[in-house]
Specification:
By secondary structure, the chain is mostly beta strands. The protein is built from no helices and 30 strands.
């Protein structure tokens, strides 16, 4: 009855382990679409799962990691080595597994006898860990970064992921092994007020970003990363121009309704202060106007080029372009 909080598919793609906010864990057989078992090893939220042929690892909000037998869900061992919620668990090799906690530690364990092998401490808080292509990718916050270890626990490289906003919630690597892909979502902060009470604020940054796996160089991101603030459609509804604080994009619709192509037109960049602040267009959307600071940029959508720039000595403020493109206010 509680919301599902995490799920993990087995390596052979036959089973799915799932956990919920009430501490329940289940194992689903994909072929029959039935559950092999459902148990409640904990009374707190399940944050992380991992499974191999023998066991299901369960990491929970109560700072404990439980080891369940895969065949029937029985708890065979509880590990009490961490002091804050467990955020990630996984199998590093066929005979070792790891536990990642918000207490800024990662512990490594031997599977055969559940004895600890090593323990690492960090200055930053880990938020995610994944074993990809035989290497452990450990993601931190403040700053957003990734530590990459081999199966012996040796640090191979460290990648930083600016800007330092939001929180990384997923991690992938492309089939060519050239790019690490980070999926980032919004993060909410709570601050204490001087006169008592708290106030919350949210960093609205959602993005899939591509980084060179070897050197950590930023190579781009998908679509919009910040909330969309404006949009303009052509009269025939064949194209839509969308804008957020950092990027203006063109979307083209195919005859096949399931296909949409996106193209970047203008960008101010993640790592600099200037941002887009408004967008308007002529009646036929032949000219697209947008403001950055005191400058208004006019984009010729027919010829696909930046046409003119108007600098307003009066300062920043709203603007509009006439339908025929001859006047601007």
């Amino acid at each position: 009855t509680a919301p599902i909080t995490t799920a993990r598919i087995s390596s052979e793609k036959t089973k799915i382990a799932f956990g919920d906010a009430a501490g329940n864990v289940g194992l689903l057989d994909i072929a029959s679409n039935t559950t092999d078992w459902i148990v409640q090893p904990a009374e707190s939220r399940v944050n992380a799962l991992a499974l191999d042929a023998d066991y299901v690892l369960v990491g929970s909000d109560d700072s404990r990691m439980r080891i369940l037998r895969r065949s029937d869900g029985e708890t065979v061992r509880q590990i009490f080595s961490h002091t804050k919620p467990i955020v990630s668990v996984g199998f590093l090799t066929t005979n070792s597994f790891f536990i990642v906690s918000e207490d800024r530690t990662v512990s490594f364990w031997r599977k055969s006898d559940f004895e600890i092998l090593d323990r690492y401490e960090f200055l930053n808080t880990p938020v995610l860990a994944e074993v990809i292509k035989g290497q452990l990718y450990l993601v931190m916050e403040n700053p957003a970064s990734t530590y990459i270890y081999n199966t012996d626990g040796l640090l191979l490289r460290w990648l930083e992921h600016p800007p330092t906003i939001g929180v990384i919630t997923s991690l992938l690597i492309d089939p060519s092994n050239k790019y690490v892909i980070t999926g980032r979502g919004p993060k909410t902060f709570e601050s204490e007020l001087f006169m008592g009470g708290t106030v919350s604020s949210t960093e609205s940054f959602c993005s899939y970003q591509f980084w060179e796996a070897g050197q950590g160089i930023f190579r781009g991101s998908l679509a919009h990363s910040f909330p969309i603030t404006d949009a303009v459609a052509t009269p025939d509804a064949g194209k839509i121009y969308t804008q957020d604080a950092k990027r203006t994009m063109l979307w083209k619709f195919d005859a096949d309704p399931t296909i949409v192509a996106g193209e970047r037109l203008m960008e101010t960049g993640y790592f600099i202060k200037p941002s887009f602040a408004g967008m308007d267009a002529t009646g036929d959307v032949g000219i697209l106007a947008t403001r950055v600071g005191v400058s208004i940029y006019m984009y010729d959508t027919v010829n696909d080029l930046l046409w003119k720039t108007l600098h307003n000595p009066g300062g920043e403020g709203p603007f509009a372009i006439s339908p025929n493109g001859r006047r601007m206010a």
